[in-house]
Amino acid sequence: MPDIGETLRTRVYARFGVGGLGVLAALGLAFYVWSHWADIRTWPGIVELVAWGSRGPVPKAEEGKFTVAVADLINDTEDRQLREAILALLGKYEGVDVLRLGRLIPLEGPTSDRAERAGHATAQAYLRESGATILIWGRVLRLGDQVRPDLFLTVLGGDTRGARQYPIETEGAFRLPTVFWEDLSAVLGLVVANRSARFAEQEGHYIADRLTPHIDRVRVLVAADGRPGWDARAIAKARFHLANALVTFGAQSGRNAPLEEAVRTYRAVLKEYVRDRMPLDWAATQNNLGSTLAILGARESGRARLEEAVTAHRSALEELTRDRVPLMWAAAKNNLAIALLSLGERESGTARLEEAVTAHRAALELYETFLEGAEVTNYILKAKENLARTEAALAARRAE
To answer: HEC states along the chain?
Structure first.
């Protein structure tokens, strides 16, 4: 009996040559895959290969909110059940947008440090391309009937969280454990703090035009109530950073509305930052509140805001002592002096101005004692400028 396959190959070769044999082989392979797909799709890496071949462009995050992207998970089902369940849960997490990335980040074998670093590097590239804030990626561990996501959290800019297994709660509705939401909230808080720190490093430069998106995102984040893992202290910390950004924006843009919002926000923070429990955080908030009130008071007629500013700075200095936190004490002394100067210029007499001069001198003395190198240029020169201005105002008042 003739070999049908051999006969077919001979005839194809005779008519079409080597190219024809290549096409025939491709058709045979395609038929084999189609007829045996139920088995082939269980082979390691096949689902990921299909996803790679069918993927579209990387989706883009919308501006104005923090965005959490979710990658395809290694060893997930063909229809990505666990990824879709995580996306559905994140969709209920108020204050953030959710993005289906449609990409799989490889993590071959055991989670070694090298594989983890490579995965985070890939995640960073996707974050930059998509504009998302956080990327959740990893794999699905299957032990018998148990399913556990082994997840990583990568933050745009370099902050990372190592792999952590989150036992799924399946009684009733599908749920992720409380610790997952606590981790996500902690990462979001870290994002807010780090971005605020970057803006603070640019003190003295005009950054109001770049602050607006940051302010909008944090404002939405702190406005949401009932978010799992987001406790009162985490909200207060985010509000503190929001208020700082509002102050910079209001001071540089010349607008009072952001400053007034900052005052309300600092006062909301003080409801959580109780002095007996968090004395330094309470004092730092009082100090910033005082500076904000002083800016508003300098722009307005009257003395009410300036009086409030002086009161806030005096309160802060009760905890920010020279022995305890010398540099914070000096900053608070400077801020008190600035408020006293504005107030003294609107009053008769020299008492406020004299106290302002004394406060500036005390701060300058400490800076000259404690600071070295580049810090000297910024802090000491500014302190000398403030002192010179206040001494000039005092001399003018005495000459009247």
So the answer is: CCCHHHHHHHHHHHHHHHHHHHHHHHHHHHHHHHHCHHHHCCCCCHHHHHHHHHCCCCCCCCCCCEEEEEEECECCCCCCHHHHHHHHHHCCCCCEEEEEEEEECCCCCCCCHHHHHHHHHHHHHHHHHHCCCEEEEEEEEEECCEEEEEEEEEECCCCEEEEEECCCECCCCCECCHHHHHHHHHHHHHHHHHHHHHHHCCCCCCCHHHHHHHHHHHHHHHHCCCCCCCCHHHHHHHHHHHHHHHHHHHHHHCCCHHHHHHHHHHHHHHHHCCCCCCHHHHHHHHHHHHHHHHHHHHHCCCCHHHHHHHHHHHHHHHHCCCCCCHHHHHHHHHHHHHHHHHHHCCCCCCHHHHHHHHHHHHHHHHHHHHCCCHHHHHHHHHHHHHHHHHHHHHHHHHHC
* Tokens 């189609």, residue located: 34
Asked whether the beta carbons of 138 and 152 are under 8 A apart, the reply is yes
Domain ranges of the chain: 4-35, 56-176, 180-272, 302-400
Model pLDDT for residues 63-98, shown as the tens digit of each residue: 777 899 999 998 888 888 888 888 888 887 777 889
241 in Cβ contact with 192 (< 8 Å): yes
Do 115 and 109 contact (CB within 8 A), yes or no?
A: yes
pLDDT tens digits, residue range 219-253?
888 887 667 778 888 889 999 999 999 999 999 99
Cα(148)–Cα(139) distance, integer angstroms: 9
Residue 123, token pair as written in the block: 């995640």
Q: Residue 248, Cβ neighbours under 10 Å: how many?
A: 21
Domain 56-176: give its CATH code. Answer: 3.40.50.10070
Distance between CA atoms of 5 and 198, rounded to whole angstroms? 69
Percent of all residues in the chain with a pLDDT value above 70, rounded to a whole number? 78
Q: Distance between CA atoms of 68 and 123, rounded to whole angstroms?
A: 12
CATH class of domain segment(s) 302-400: mainly alpha
Is-above-0.85 flag for pTM? Answer: no
